[in-house]
Amino acid sequence: MTDSIHVDGATGSRRAPASRVGSHSFMPVVLGAPVLIWQLVFFAAPLAFLLVVTFWKVASFKLEPAFSFDNWTKVLLSGPYQKALVYTAGTASLATLLTVLVALPAAYTIAFRLSPKLRNLAVTCLIVPVFSSYLLRIYAWQIVLSPEGVINSVFKGLGGAGLSLLGGQLALQIGLLTLTLPVAILVLVLAFSGIDRTLIEAAENLGCRRSKVIVHVLLPSIRNAIVLAASTAFILSFGDYVSPLFMTGSNPPTLSILIVDTVKSGSQWPRASVIGITMLAALILVFVAGQLLTRTGKGAQ
Amino acid sequence: MTDPFVSLKNLDKRFPGHHAVKDISLDIKGGEFIALMGPSGCGKSTTLRLIAGLDEPTGGEIYIGGRAMSGIPAYERDTPMVWQSLALFPFMTVIENVEFPLRMKGVTPKVRRDRAMEWLEKLGLGTMANRGIAQLSGGQRQRVAIARSLVTQPSVLLLDEPLSALDSHLRVRMQTELSRLHKELGITFIYVTHAQSEAFALADRIVLMSEGTIQQTGRPQDVYREPANAFVADFMGMNNIVSGSVSRSDGEGVVIDGKAGQFRVASKNAARSGDVSFVIAADRIQIGQANMASANSVAGKVIGIEFVGSTQTIFVEADGAEFRVQKQQHEIEALNIQPGSKLTLYWQPDHAWLLPDTN
Question: For chain A, what is the mean pLDDT?
Fold first, then answer.
């Protein structure tokens, strides 16, 4: 991919007649400018500001420009921050693992075992939640899981004791999967559907049992999509604020909860920014790791 | 070997709304290079898929090495296939692709690496072992696909239009290579193609199929010179089919009254009467001056000349029928033939072939 773009840009303009060189190099600038400006104003600039703020001071609830590493050392060395970091990373890792474990068989079934009509229906059912309000879906789960909720009424009706479903890792994971699963399954369904069916037949023809085709052909074929689905799931659940807030009542706090708390208690914008920057760094790390995983794939395109 | 190695007995395959293979029977000898040929949709690829076990027949039986194949899944048959799309695994290196069938058989890593390497070297790919499939040229990929199918030393190799993705230059080179491999290995090759040139160049025997049935089986030259019916004659390309009715027959052949004149056909199956058709190949027609008196001749007018390469095809209209005549370019120039030229076409009675099938 990057190769072909590079070739177009380099040899394409070099070979163009002199009179057209101007328009050739001018057009990409014109077409690319709005995106570039948008990114600069709404992404790069706030990010740079966020980074600058981490070195500022707060005096009597007001931000004051300064250059001090005080915020960084205070945050990074604080117990609550370290706990929250470990907890958030652990929660996101678990959510990622669960997402992949649930999404793979689901996507396989949709792509290979359903009739075309049912497949379209399933894909529609996956797309709709992506465009519906996440907050709404979490409220719905709250109703289902709360002490007086749907599950508990049924359970109590059968004579059981009330279960405390809300407020633990179970509820949190349910909330996070609500966010990650539709995206992950969609990515994997598309990848599975893109596999050349003759590869499957060729594998069988060469002595691969049907049951082993999944391991030997299907999973390696969609390796990049699995990495994409997993890193998306991690990124979504690592930064999520809604599920920790409503499913566990912010207890224990995740990093995003900690950001809000830090701002609320004493207007500590600089320290909240430190947490934000470290979260961003963690996500970039995950993203780069994902890229490395896909790039070392054998026979990469 | 006297016993057939691959045997199809009343093989039948119906798909919903499509009868792909209609009750065909065929015996293929061990070590034979056989070409299944025919237009697209004739059932040749389906037949190959049935042999490989990729589709289940709806009737009949396939025997390979004397063993009935029904109920034996594809992965348990030793019938590797070279696919039109090659179907190489893009997520594996060259050598991993070639090792794949050995890995499925549970061959140890060391042994399978050596055997795969041996095959890669045999096909001139020794230095490419650790490359990705995307980094290979079309011809190299073709070789990987062949190495992958032969690495298990099968006794049958199935090839489904393996060369159709290559350019004509490479195709000829790969034909030579396949021919060499077939001689070296002495195993059975079953080769599906729609290209007459490939089938003729490679096969010991040709099976010509149309609409799910076998039209003719035989050596390439026999199928070419002695087509069993009008379909075969037409599929072979450069044939003229003339219809008429037998006016008399004797020990040397038949005399046929056609629209364009009276023709004598020297034929082994001369005891015929009624309406018949005979075939005269385009390259066996001679060209004479207009008004030339000769037996087996038609007077006609040139309506077109087509440049094919070393030869040219002349289209001649004679009494409402169109004849195709194939000649070397210098012959055409020597006779000074132009569109509109009047001339006489004639041929020897023993160059014409009476179609056994009157339809």
Answer: 87
The two tokens of residue B179 are: 């021919």
The DSSP letter of residue A216 is: I
Nearest to A291 by CA among A227, A239, A238: A227
CB contact under 8 A, B92 and A206: no
ipTM (interface predicted TM)? 0.84
Q: What is the bridge-based pairing of β-strands B275-281 and B352-354?
A: antiparallel
Q: Does residue A25 belong to any structural domain of this protein?
A: no
How close, in Å, is residue B162 to chain A by CA atoms? Answer: 14
In a domain, A19, yes or no: no
Spell out which chain A residues touch chain B, with contact meaning CB-CB distance below 8 angstroms: 196, 198-199, 201-210, 212, 216-217, 220-221, 223, 297-301
Q: What is the CATH number of the domain that holds A137?
A: 1.10.3720.10
Nearest to B75 among A207, A220, A297 (CB): A207
Give residue B33's region: left, alpha or beta (phi > 0; psi -120 to 50).
beta
Rounded mean pLDDT of B161-178?
90
pLDDT of res. A23: 60
* Residue ranges making up the domain that contains A121: 71-294
Chain A contact set for B52 (CB, 8 A): 205
pTM: 0.81
CB contact under 8 A, A301 and B134: yes
